[in-house]
Amino acid sequence: MTKYNCVVVGAGPGGSAFSKIAVENGLKVLMLERARNPGEKNTSGSTIWGNIARKIHPDFPADAPIERRVDGGRLYFVPEGKDWEKGGYSLVGFSHPSKEISDPFNVYRNVFDKWWAEQSVAAGAELKTSTLVTGVVRDANGKIIGVIDEKGEKYEADIVIGADGVLSIIGRMAGLRPMWGSHENCLCCKIDWELDEKLIDERFGSSIEHDDGDIGVLLEIYFAQPMAGNAGYFWIFPDRGSLALGLGIIMNDLIRLEHNIWWYMWNSINHPIVKPKLKGGKPRSYIAHSIPLTNPVGPNGTLFKSYADNIMLIGDAAGFVCPIDGAGWCGAVSAGKIAAEIATKALEKGDTSAEFFQRYQRKWIESDVGKNLKMGKEMADWLTHESGGINVLADQFTRGLASLMEHGTSHEEVGSSSINRTIKYAQEWMALSKPMRMLLGPYLQLFTSLMR
Predict the structure, then answer these.
(1) For residue 423, with 0-12 CB atoms within 10 Å meaning exposed, 13-18 middle and 19 or more buried, which class applies?
(2) CA-wise closest residue to 281 among 198, 356, 340, 217
(3) What's the rounded Cα separation, in Å, for the pair 306 and 299?
(4) Are 32 and 9 in contact (CB under 8 A)?
(5) Nearest alpha carbon to residue 46 among 221, 187, 246, 210
(6) Distance between CA 161 and CA 15 in Å, rounded?
(7) Which letter does DSSP use for residue 382 in this model?
(8) Where are the domains of the chain?
(9) How far apart are CA 351 and CA 74, in angstroms?
(10) Pairing mode, if any, of strands 311-313 and 154-162?
């Protein structure tokens, strides 16, 4: 049996990022992937960030299979019970500030994730697909020293990397976490909607032509109780010849809702604002999956440690998904790089203990990974609950925009003013202590109900 420096369970964004950096540092790495090809099971909106990708591939996008460049987007706030066809909703446009900050691209994850993993293989990692890891291998002292697949084959390693998604058998068998609770788990569903490229350009194009002659696109995000309940959102992310239509709702809230998640998906697709934009297209694939929406940084998170003796967790396995938007690609990739650097140092020193791997957790908490998780959790709590809920905010936005428009403010000025006021309000609200926000929450809801 071949022994490796690192066995990586899961060849998704984080696992592949770890593997490429690790083999470039001279480590012997094996990736085990349960799917036939990496990317088959994702429910991602499929927007990735070029500035993060360049941490792993300095010349990105180079020959990467990119679908579209993203130049900005539209945020829709759609209150319940309004006449949407007569403008009973608010629309705020946004643009990305610079390539250094975001540099977003849309990708078709079934193709892109395969390419992403292949770059790690080209660098020297081994990849074994259609391999389901079902358990771990322990030494005489009970420490994990490898994994075992469903066929009984064992793979030993100095370090095991759990990049095995929301259910993470590695995280659970290492004693780092139980299953995510319903209050920190989001169910997502996605439809790949086939649509002619010219229609996509007409309906979602940014009109910005890039150096390669490609026309950029705009993302669309809908915060709307009639479309995604009070704790989720619906999205449309344009690709070359299809749209990624997605919807996610926090499991705890979904349990209390009257309908299942696919009802909300079809309600969104047939909504008067959305339906005309999809005309002429048709669905060609469906998928549903859950993602963690928690805050493993603070005391309210389920996961208090992302490491153990010989173990590090990355990506969804560690809860690295921003709770405000469900984005996990950046956190997985950034943490994968951090973990690879820590693994290299650990093997150089001959120390793969939990004590040594504490520095992995410290580094990702101090990085943008930890900062985004903390901020995202606080903002998500405010948006979906403490502020009075999505429907209250959508109603306030719509009435506020209508009032400004009546007084001669341009649509561009309205959008900028509204988004800035909302950010300022959210920042002031977040500055209050958690107990104070909980105390004031009911009064905010009462106040907004009286304003209707």
Answers:
(1) exposed
(2) 198
(3) 14
(4) yes
(5) 246
(6) 8
(7) I
(8) 1-65+108-180+296-366, 69-102+181-293, 381-450
(9) 49
(10) parallel
Q: What does the block give as tokens for 444? A: 């905010």
Query: Residue 61, preceding bond cis, omega within 30 degrees?
Result: yes
Distance CA 245, CA 161 (A): 32
With a CB cutoff of 8 Å and minimum separation 6, the contacts of 194 are 241, 242, 281, 282, 283, 284
Tell me if residue 383 falls in helix, strand or coil: helix
Task: Name every residue whose Cβ is closer than 8 Å to that of residue 74 and which is 6 or more positions away in sequence.
Answer: 91, 92, 93, 94, 218, 219, 220, 221
Q: Taking the CA of residue 349 as centre, how many other CA atoms within 13 Å lie in the half-sphere pointing to its CB?
A: 12
Instruction: Report the C-alpha gap between 326 and 452 in whole angstroms.
Output: 31
Contact 107, 48 (CB under 8 A): yes
Query: How many other CB atoms sit within 10 Å of the CB of residue 335?
Result: 29
| pTM for the full predicted model | 0.85
DSSP class of residue 277 equals: H
DSSP secondary structure string for all residues of 37-73: STTTT-----EEEHHHHTTT-TTTTTT--EEEEEEEE
Longest Cα–Cα distance in the chain = 76
Cα separation, 350 vs 140, whole angstroms = 19
- How many Å apart are CA 238 and CA 245, to the nearest integer? 9
- Segment 252-292, tens digit of pLDDT: 888 888 788 999 999 999 988 899 999 999 999 999 988 88
Q: What kind and span of H or E run contains 337?
A: helix 329-349
- pLDDT tens-place string over residues 167-196: 899 999 999 877 777 877 888 999 999 999
Architecture per CATH, 69-102+181-293: 2-Layer Sandwich (3.30)
DSSP 220-274: EEEEEHHHHTTSEEEEEEE-SSEEEEEEEEEHHHHHHSSS-HHHHHHHHHTSTTT
Give per-residue pLDDT as tens, 335-389.
999 999 999 999 999 999 999 999 999 999 999 998 888 887 777 777 666 666 6
Q: Which CATH number fits domain 1-65+108-180+296-366: 3.40.50.360, 1.10.10.10, 3.40.50.170, 3.50.50.60?
A: 3.50.50.60
For tokens 């995202």, what's the residue? 376
Whether the CB-CB separation of 46 and 244 falls below 8 Å is answered with: yes
Task: Return the closest-CA partner of residue 241 out of 191, 200, 286, 285.
Answer: 200
End-to-end CA distance of the chain: 70
Number of Cα atoms under 13 Å in the Cβ half of residue 82: 26
What is the mean pLDDT of the segment spanning 113-131?
97
The pair of structure tokens assigned to 201 is 């350009």
Burial zone of 263 (CB within 10 Å; 0-12 exposed, 13-18 middle, 19+ buried): exposed
